[in-house]
# Entry
Amino acid sequence: MLLCSVARLPKLKNSLAMLHLSDKKRNKVKSIDAFVLNLSNHLSKFVKLSDYKKQNMAATLQATGIMMTPETYFARVFVRFIIKLLPAIIIFFVSRPAALIFLIWPVKCIFDDLKKAEKMMQDKIKIIDHELPRFAATISQQLKSSRDVVKIFSEYLPSAGKEFRDELEITIADMKSSSPDKALSRMESRLGSFMISQLVRGLQSVLNGDNGIMYFEMLSYNFKQFEIQELKLEAIKRPDKMRVYSYIILACIFLTLLSVIIIFLYGKLKSLV
# Structure
């Protein structure tokens, strides 16, 4: 509390309540997280970003559900790095070689923190892309009876996955409050997926009066083929991963046999003596 008062930071109790409300997963919030966020907010005014970097980062943070500005995000990465660097600084005065070992951890963490939002975004896009073949097939069937894109989106919501459902809810609200064409363009720019771009182009053509049934049938087939190709590539990578475990098992067998031989020879030598 004294440290927060000196640094003119909000009380930890208030910060913890704010973090808890902003966390969609309702995970347990730690006091250190609140302190880091408060300090990051104060340091964010010193972080300067280009307009392009700021816009891209803001879109990524919004899409991944990280409720902070790009400046605060980068300031938090710096604060976390300094906190994790403190053990290495303390040990440096005792043993310099040991300090180098403790320095590896904060350096690794700062690179992981910088890429955390992008990795979360890539994982989210990957999950959504796996759902698009079924969504495209559903659209092709729905277009035979209705051409209302908002209705098609709303009817698909109950069967959608969590990540895709969140995006559909945002897009539906956007379509109801503004132009559906522009709302679809904003969804495309938020996700930045090639498959989403193809889906959006088809929906925009439907809004402009095109039939769209054949387009989405072909799109569903292409998406399914792309998914099968991705699974084949994943299957090709599996043997390389399994090979490492095979080597470990082989090494364990070799060490077991070697230990038995050593014990046997030791027993023979002991009996001779």
User: Anything to note?
Assistant: The CA atoms of residues 17 and 29 lie 9 Å apart. Residues 126-227 form one domain.
